[in-house]
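User: Fold both of these, please.

Assistant: Here is the first one.
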Amino acid sequence: MEAQVTQTPRTLPASGLDRPMLGSPTPSRPIPLAILVLLLIAVLAASILGSLAAGAVHVPLRALIAHQALTPMDRIILFDLRLPRVLASALIGAALATAGLLFQGLFRNPMADPYVIGSSGGAVVGACIGILFFSQAAFLGFSATALLAFAGSVVTMLLVYTLARGTGGTNVVALLLAGFAVSTMLMNSTYLFELLDPDPARSSAILETWLRGTVGTPGWPQLAVTSSLFAIAAVIAIPLMRRLNTLALGDEYAQQLGLRIERSRLAIILTGSLLTAVAVSLGGLIGFAGLIVPHAARMLLGPDHVRLLPVTALAGAIFLVAADTLARTVLSPRELPVGVLMVFVGGPFFLYLLRKSKQEYGL
């Protein structure tokens, strides 16, 4: 049984909660958490309604709210096509944002996004293996695709973490370089699966969709499985938030407080990888949501991960619902892959963070 974190060090180090993460100023008057959560729930509900109404076939919000006014065609469009997709995009956004919060807290750097450090790439490779070669397999109700995506994400994260880990802690430059190198290798390795598949046209279409990042229309069983996995990961993440706060004090003080550091880091990596696998199994490679949302939440609430968790998850859901709605309506009737849209938004934001970190890390 792990020791309870109840002691308080006499002197807090400069790298603790008293110093916000890079590029994340602590607000002088934080917004009350309960008010912010209720506001975000209302915005999420409005976003879902708006997304259900928008599309090539417009469904008036009044008809949507007054359920009896819907035509049979409207019911098919809303409940068989759009509703699963909107719920999937909300789930993807919440999962990616929460995974980003975990990884940023673990590496103490706002650039530690699942996409940037290779976690998403590993999940994509695992998911591709599941789709192409084990599409009918399942274990304990979970598809081989979801399980292999989780395994791919975990293995990749452990590899990147090991490569970036030095004697004095995790080097940020090494983390970014290792994540980029591993992610690039994994992305290119997916094309080997196309060559190995007896039906290369099928595998080519699947890989193209996944690598571009597209929120499709999942079946209700798939949505139920991924929602269950997200719920499990979210429950596990709750106590991990206090451990992240303790880790922010530095390894020496965390040990003094009784925290088992390596065990905590492994738990954070596994939980973040599970969340990444949930997102990838629903939408493929969608980057930068895990980068932008936790950073914005930290600017609103400060560095306390306990307060950040619900806000980050809700904001991530809103962000992806809005992004997917825009992706499928801006060039209507054609759809823009949401992963491509996110690159245009997240790429400049990543460069902004990189520029802010230049002096501190000598980049």
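And the second sequence with its predicted structure:
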Amino acid sequence: MSFDTKRAVRLALILAATASMAACASKPKPMPEPGPGPTGPVGPSQPQPQPGPGPVEQGVLPGSQQDFVINVGDFVYFDLDSYEVRGDAAPILDAQAGWLQRYPNVQVRIEGNADERGTREYNLALGARRANAVRDYLVSRGVSSSRIATISWGKERPVDPGTGEEAWARNRNGHTVIVSGAR
């Protein structure tokens, strides 16, 4: 073999080896699509988050001001230019009297209010009569008068700032406010 022949044979062997290696090489396998996740245990178990204690019960504390407002009612309403306790106010005032007898340390203030019509003096007097009418009703149901204060706001503290019969009707009220002793 001549030098060129040896070189040609080496070159042919190198090419043949490269071709055979290339023929043995396989295409990369496609990666599986990511699934929804492992369906069984994959590794050491991870601590699972435990459910929390859940929402805290937001109950109304018996004997609280919230209990009084929600479960009894703190407003009663009056007709125009009247301080007579209406029939629809009696159940609310009866419930107020019962609640106040259950919680004998509670002190209340009855606030008498009027709508925007009328003079300031007239509305202050009407608000005072309304507050006294509510107080007298509660006293007639066994609540000690020493636990009840009254005040008239006249038309100075409207519940509804609107005008018109609907707003005026809401502003003609006796509002029972707990001032002390509630939980």
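The two ends are 115 Å apart (CA to CA).
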